[in-house]
Design brief:
Number of helices: 23
Number of domains: 3
Number of strands: 2
Shape: elongated
Organism: Thinocorus orbignyianus
Pfam family, one: ST7
Strand content: under 5%
Keywords: Membrane, Transmembrane, Transmembrane helix
Membrane topology: Multi-pass membrane protein
InterPro entries: ST7 (IPR007311), TPR-like_helical_dom_sf (IPR011990)
Strand order of the largest sheet: 1-2
Length: 477
Amino acid sequence: LPTVTVFLSTLTPKFYFALTVTSSFISGLIFVFEWWHFRKYGTSFIEQVSVSHLRPLMGGVESSPPAPAAFSAGENEPSRQNMPECKVWRNPLNLFRGAEYSRYMWVTGKEPLTYYDMNLSAQDHQNFFTCDTDALRPSDTVMQKAWRERNPQARIKAAHQALELNNDCATAYVLLAEEEATTIVDAERYFKQALKAGEMIYRRSQNCHSQSPQHEAQLRRDTNVLVYVKRRLAMCARKLGRIREAVKMMRDLMKEFPLLSMLNIHENLLEALLELQAYADVQAVLAKYDDISLPKSAAICYTAALLKARAVSERFSPETASKRGLSTAEINAVEAIHRAVEFNPHVPKYLLEMKSLVLPPEHILKRGDSEAVAYAFFHLQHWKRIEGALNLLHCTWEGTFRMIPYPLEKGHLFYPYPSCTETADRELLPTFHEVSVYPQKELPFFIHFTAGLCSFSAMLALLTHQFPELMVVFARA
């Protein structure tokens, strides 16, 4: 002790200043390295080393997260290369403008659709329902202009003009069903008239489609009209409670036009089968469309998770599971939820009613908030119907989210999460809706600790430089 006292009495203020500057510099380097490691790998390096190496030496047990679902492992690499970053898709279950979107606006006074969303729909209608041979038929010429009109009343007026020129103009009935009909019953009546006219025109186009490229283009257009009308008729039947009829219409449509899988008619079928509680049929549809080569959607991923959760949710208890561990079926359910959350992390808050829903837009961005709104709007009732399913989701989704690779540029089961989804979602969703953004991970403890240590030692160095004598007395004391 006397030696230490003599040693401290001989130290000068310069030594204390150099000591605090050096410690501040070293702690700053540790902080920078910790931050870099977290940004790249999503974990704290110090915490990882202590858990992986020090805890076993001290007699602790390493708790490793469950392995990812084996059925999705092969999706990663091909999807990363082939999937576009921000492709906007037509919402497979989009509502009717006149019978549903307009009714919402009458009641609330709020516009449920954005201009950007309606503009995309206008482009879709021009691509689906027009072709180069429209100039040969006066009614189709009128409808070609009608799809470009911005004013809804102008479009409806043009559709009536087209029907005056040709009572069998299928696209005019389609426009009236979508925008003039104020109830689903009226919409279905218009679509039945469109179906009668569309089938007649389609058969006529089939007979002469090989005569010229113009006739082929006309056949494509007439095919699009016929598929669109049959799909909307099936959706009308679903909304009016004739669910078995709707399922049959969807199945027949998928068999008749198997090459049009990009229209995602199977998502309409999944929702209708869930309403019937035909879970074996739902599993059969998933087995066909939940394939590595096909693009995923929230409907596919979360429906697969719902079926897995259904097997264990009724008897699931977090306390019991923590004591005895997870069974094989529970692990499968948790892995399915992990897979779904990684694909679209916005859905759980809507299913758990932590965020309020709005009417889904006519277009969605896969993995974005718009897709989450569209999925939860139609599927929340199916999750509520299965006892304990939402409880299992509530107990597991936050924990599984922590296992998702970080930052956004990384992906584990799927291609990396697109960074542009927030901007696109803000254009698709109404302004009064609070857009959900990609959940950010909390900073680890050691980043806060090293930042505090660096700041504290830097402050000591500054005080030692400004008040050397006082800081020497303080250090000796």
